[in-house]
Specification:
It is a single chain. By secondary structure, the chain is an alpha/beta fold. The chain folds into 4 domains: about 70 residues; about 170 residues, Nucleotidyltransferase, domain 5; about 60 residues, no CATH class; about 90 residues, no CATH class. About 40% of the residues lie in helices and about 15% in strands. It has a 5-stranded mixed beta sheet. Strands 11-14-15-16 form a 4-stranded antiparallel beta sheet, with no helix packed on it. A hairpin with a 5-residue loop joins β4 and β5. The longest helix is centred in the middle third of the chain and has 21 residues. It is elongated. The N and C termini lie far apart (about 140 Å).
């Protein structure tokens, strides 16, 4: 640096500190239409939704050839500045001070974007989040729908993980907790969820419908949770898990390490302010008592489920949890069934009906739930192959193969079908049976009598005379 430059910069501004330009370098292209045409549009746009691109298109229509697309940036700056100086007021969000131990916020969040799979199959799921508003301590549970059972089970699990209960529960207007009030456009608390609040001794605080920001504590936590899970899955190198339980353990570990541990000191201050957990666990299921129909099915909450055929005609008790159903008869647990979620959905297990179907194979072709009788893709491919070979006779062969899978092992039958289908050779039930249950070799029974020493005694006199 020269002495002259140093002296000049010492007396004035440095070269990097240029004065902000306040003058225009070219004529404003919107000067003539701004007050007459653009400002009235902005004044009527009280919600600030009108975009500069739309205004420019409007000007193109009314003044052909006068304005160019390159004028958009200028118009955007003018609209921005007008709204800042003369536009309608914006909504103000008020930062809250959260009292220790007072409030917990709860919500469900969809996690399809994480790309999680269970044993290779896509895992469509939600996560239930409960966050202490003061310390941000978080409890999370995998859910499959925003049902009453999922909500109550999520609260039970989250409060147990946290180790205490707040005085207030903050949530949006979940259909599991509230219902519409006809005529008033409002929502009221369900009696069932009222019982859940009484169990935990909770007060309920509902946000205004359509105002998700009023539950901002858990909404922000939902976004943060999905971001840390996404990053953890990238580091893990795979989004596939052996089971839903393994995935839940992974989520718990990430939540504890990435979300809860940084707030441990704040939570230590809040924990003594929480109420103790209830002494008895919360009942997190809904009870139904359907009668088993002659189709060996029951109807539970507008969904159909198959049950063992020996129960046809009997009334059973069903406990509907958030992820499964438990079937009872005479207070004995008969079976656990996977829960169906969509309205008018169904869950049919071939083992429940195969004994009757193998005696009536003609019913297979037009059976209402026929698609449920293909346990895996290889069974469907095998059936299509049988149709090519035998036509309508394929139904008989396939039903017998399915019966073989029910009384032996489905995996062994599937492996045999995979091999036969890939080989493109003709096969039938007998071919599959020979691979799954090869004939046992008959071992001949050889009987060797016990030696009689008296035989040798009778030989001695004859041998003596010969000598």
């Amino acid at each position: 640096m020269s002495v002259r430059s140093a002296g000049k910069w010492k007396q004035g501004a440095l070269p990097s500190q240029r004065a902000k330009r306040t003058w225009r370098t070219r004529k404003d292209p919107f000067e003539e239409v701004w007050e007459e045409e653009i400002v009235p549009l902005l004044v009527t746009d009280t919600e600030r939704r009108l975009e500069a691109t739309t205004i420019l298109e409007h000007l193109h229509d009314h003044h052909p050839g006068r304005f160019e697309d390159g004028h958009l940036r200028t118009l955007q700056r003018r609209v921005r500045d007008w709204r800042a100086l003369e536009g309608p007021p914006k909504e103000v969000f008020f930062e809250q001070i959260h009292e220790l131990g007072r409030e917990a916020a709860a919500d469900f969040t969809h996690c399809g974007g994480l790309g999680v799979t269970i044993a290779g199959a896509p895992f469509d799921h939600l996560l239930f989040n409960l966050v202490l508003s003061a310390s941000k301590r978080t409890g999370t549970m995998i859910a499959y729908s925003e049902s009453f059972e999922a909500l109550s089970a999520g609260l039970e699990r989250a409060f147990k993980v946290i180790g205490g209960v707040t005085r207030v529960l903050r949530t949006d207007n979940l259909t599991a907790a509230t219902h519409d009030l006809r005529g008033s456009r409002g929502r009221a608390l369900n009696e069932r969820f009222r019982g859940v609040l009484e169990h935990f001794d909770l007060e309920l605080s509902l946000i205004t419908p359509g105002r998700a920001h009023e539950n901002g504590v858990v909404e922000k936590r939902n976004d943060r949770l999905k971001r840390v899970l996404e990053q953890a899955l990238i580091l893990r190198g795979s989004s596939d898990f052996a089971s839903a339980e393994a995935y839940q353990a992974f989520v718990d570990e990430i939540v504890e390490r990435r979300l809860n541990r940084p707030n441990a000191s704040r939570f230590a201050q809040e924990l003594p302010k929480l109420k103790p957990l209830p002494q008895t666990p919360l009942v997190c299921y809904t009870t139904w008592q359907p009668k088993v129909r002659r189709w060996s099915t029951i109807r539970v909450n507008s969904r159909s489920y198959s049950v063992p055929s020996r129960l046809i005609g009997h009334e059973v008790t069903v406990h509907q949890y958030h992820d499964h159903l438990e079937l009872y008869y005479c207070d004995q647990l008969i079976e656990r069934l996977p829960r169906a979620y969509a309205i008018e959905a169904h869950t049919i297990q071939y083992r429940h009906i195969i004994d009757s179907l193998v005696r009536k194979p003609g019913a297979f072709q037009r059976y209402r739930y026929r698609d449920e009788l293909f346990p895996t893709l290889v069974f469907r491919r095998a059936y299509d192959r049988l149709r090519e070979q035998y036509g309508e006779r394929a139904d008989v062969e396939y039903v017998r193969i399915l019966h073989l899978a029910a009384r032996t092992m489905e995996s062994r039958v599937a492996a045999a079908l995979e091999q036969l289908v890939n080989a493109r050779t003709d096969f039938d039930y007998r071919t599959v049976q020979e691979q799954v249950e090869p004939p046992k070799l008959e071992i001949p029974q050889i009987s060797i009598p016990k030696p009689d020493p008296g035989v040798y005694d009778r030989l001695l006199p004859a041998c003596a005379g010969a000598l």
